[in-house]
Amino acid sequence: MSTRVTGTTGAVDAGRPAPAAPAAASVTTSTKVAPAIARSWLLVPGTADRLADRIRSSSADVVVVDLEDGVAPDRKGEARRALAAAVAELDRAGIADRPWVRIADAASDEWRADVALLRGRDLAAGVVLAKVEAAGHVRRTLDGLGGAGSLPLVALVESALGVESALEIASAPGVTRLAFGSGDFRRDTGAADDPMALLYARSRLVSTSRAAGLPGPVDGPTVARDAAVLAEASRHAASVGLTGRLCLREEQVGSVHQAMSPSTGEIAWALGVLETIERSGIRDGSDLPRLARARGVCDAAEAFGLDLAVAPATSAYAD
Q1: Integer Cα distance of 99 and 178 in angstroms
Q2: Over 240-305, what HEC string results?
Q3: What is the rounded radius of gyration, in angstroms, for the C-alpha atoms of the chain?
Q4: Which of 20, 109, 151, 210 is most buried by its number of CB atoms within 10 A?
Q5: What are phi and psi of 28, to 5 degrees?
Q6: Which residues of 297-307 are buried (b: 16+ CB within 10 A; e: fewer)?
Q7: Within its chain, how far is the Cα of 197 from the centroid?
Q8: How far is it, in rounded angstroms, from Cα 132 to Cα 109?
Q9: C-alpha pair distances (Å), 268 with each of 4, 223, 273
Q10: What is the DSSP letter of 198?
Q11: Which runs of consecutive H residues, i.e. helices, occur in 66-217?
């Protein structure tokens, strides 16, 4: 039967299972996904051609105009002007949505110019702050933008010091999510581009996000163009508990959505659990984690606009 997943309660559970090769659910690109649970964060350099078109045509959950590493040092001013021009073009087209903007780290010279650009202007839906290593970087940035509540902020953790300060950063007022700058972290620590070498850093960001009451963090991007490499890296990130990924190219978005969304098997399991518990009630305390996970899976499916043809799992309590 064709099932539209609705009517569930509870937060999206970052601890949902992630099979090695799940059957994919179809995702309706018209669904508006909140940044708190956004799977794909597409980085578009501020100097990119047709910037406004790339912002409005992307299928990513969140488009991030990059004023930081994606822009050459001698083109920073050009990128800032292009962002303002792109937003003006969106306004003329009657598009009220704003991109997020990645700005320079709070210890850099470019930070002041980035903050001055955004302060008091309706240019961004939120800010991704690069190279965060302390809660003070967050406080200083939010103060510069106009105070707490001015813009939501994603803290991009990219160094050993940042990873070890992750709980302090995640707990700072104004931080809505953590993200992992895997490339700069490898440069800082000498770690290989290997899942096991980066497992501690990813797991620490997941744990500290949970401890601070934040959604699961956003993973760093895959540079390689090999689709199989991207798919495997995204499945690994999801299995650790990360719930989003930075993307460098539009063609990466679909693969990230597939890996970071509930599979048909997961939703079949979740629907089976909910159906069984509704029919038979809670048996004992071991049902409560299953119930929470099932609700989280169904909430995620609803939020991501999944429309599936599924049947309840054979065993509603199978893990």
Answers
A1: 18
A2: HCCCEEEECCHHHHHHHHHHHCCCHHHHHHHHHHHHHHHHHCCCCCCHHHHHHHHHHHHHHHHHCC
A3: 20
A4: 151
A5: -80, 120
A6: bbbbbbbbbbe
A7: 22
A8: 15
A9: 12, 33, 9
A10: T
A11: 76-92, 110-118, 135-145, 160-164, 166-170, 182-189, 199-211
- DSSP-derived pairing of the beta strands 62-66 and 40-45: parallel
Running DSSP on this structure, what letter comes out for residue 130? S
Tell me the residue type at 314. Answer: T
Please identify which residue in the block is written with the tokens 């390689």.
Answer: 224
Instruction: Look at residues 294, 242, 304, 305 and name the one whose alpha carbon lies nearest to residue 267.
Output: 294
Question: What is residue 227's DSSP assignment?
Answer: H
Question: Residue holding tokens 């991009």?
Answer: 156
With a pLDDT cut of 70, the percent of the chain lying above it is 86
- Residue 171's pLDDT is 98
- DSSP H or E run through 177: strand 175-180
**Global pTM exceeds 0.70:** yes
Beta carbons within 10 angstroms of residue 266's beta carbon = 25
Strand-pair partners of 306? 27
- What does the pLDDT look like over 240-287, one tens digit per residue? 999 999 999 999 999 999 999 998 888 999 989 999 998 989 988 889
Cα distance between residue 63 and residue 101, in whole Å: 8
| Local structure of residue 166 (DSSP, 8 states) | H
Higher pLDDT, 168 or 319: 168
Long-range contacts from 113-117, C-beta under 8 angstroms, 24+ separation: 113/76, 113/77, 113/80, 114/67, 114/80, 115/141, 115/144, 115/145, 116/144, 117/80, 117/83, 117/84
- Give dist(CA 233, CA 224) in Å, integer: 11
Do residues 65 and 55 make contact, with C-beta atoms less than 8 angstroms apart? yes
Question: How far apart are the two ends of the chain, measured CA to CA in Å?
Answer: 23
